[in-house]
Write the structure tokens for this entry.
Amino acid sequence: MSPLKAPSLRQLRRYAIARSLFKATSLPRSIARLGFVQADPMRAPARAQDLILAHRVKDYRAGELERRYPRLAIEEAFFVNYGFLPRKTLALLHPRGAPRAWDAWDATMQAHAQEVLAFVRQHGPIYPKDVQAHFDHGRMKRWGANLNVSNHLLEGLHYRGLLRVARREGGTRVYQTIEHPPRHDSPEARLARAGHLLDMLVQLYAPLPAASLVYVCRLAELWSAAPGR
């Protein structure tokens, strides 16, 4: 059997365009087809989510995704990076494996997180400023910046799947607790979930070399969804 011939740059370009661009459709259908829409607050030249959807959603207007978010079956979530995905996909991501080294909390931070979670559960959809005013956790040094600890805890609880973003007001996330449906945790079920996530990554980023595929799998913590992890 002769070895496979490597595709040319022209072939790869045509393949990537054919997979990622499609006839403009509705916002829900576009998100479902893409599987994941990266979000970024930077506006130069425009936010990532608006640039992505402008070419794929009929008559799309900047900011439409956030305006319609509370009425759509989608979630803000951490996947390979931060963005929007169909709600049914969220169950594939949680519970995550052990936190990444820079996301790990010591006993004190864990206790603070449980207090914040109980507070949000009791008061319903809540602004970060309300959590900060109630607890006054202070600030912390992280990534060379002086960060608000309350915001850090809310983002960490969101990353772990214990909170969701109910909506945004003036660009600020409004958080509420979330209950995930029961699920099977057998090796077969975990392997199936990991397979679904892998399919999503390939759909999003193909064509890409094997080394890059391994890299995005690690970013998505795909290994934590697989059996034995």
About this structure: The mean pLDDT is 87. Residues 187-205 form the longest helix (19 residues).
